[in-house]
Structures
1.
Amino acid sequence: MEIVYTCCCGMDVHKKTVVACLLSQSGKEVKTFGTMTADLWAMNAWLREHYCQMEAMESSGSYWKPIYNLLEADQMPAMVVNALHPQRVPGGRASGPRKRRCRARRRM
């Protein structure tokens, strides 16, 4: 598999927290930030500190908008992804035995 980004971050955005998972060649690091402005600036500084090249966020509501605006204003590339897309990737959320159980339930 070709490496597209050497350092990237996936975010799960909620009303009061943002869970950020940074993947780099040195490993994986997960941090939780608040959603107040000072917390978002701290998250932005953390991403800059690790030279993050791309951020992808998943959100089921409109909570992603302030985070996206902050990243965009700071010239950091970011994208909002559909919550179903990670599940369709091999090794994603619903792969393996769990996926087979879900298919079996639908057949019943």
2.
Amino acid sequence: MLQELDSNLTSTDNFIHEQNCKLAEKDNTIWNNKAEIERLEKKNKMQEHKVKDTLIDTCQRLICCRCAGQFFNIPCGSLSD
């Protein structure tokens, strides 16, 4: 009877160990995914700023082009950057 209890306890310990290993693997996967999400969010934010800066620069050039064309009475399509 004592051997049976010891065997059950060993089985239970082995099961708990296996579950802890699986849990540790899943925890590691979660942390890796969080790190990847943070990296991608930073990259996305950087790309958004680049697009915004490009749009602002383009708009400023168009405004300057139109202002110069009106000031010198030149059609905007004939001005080049």
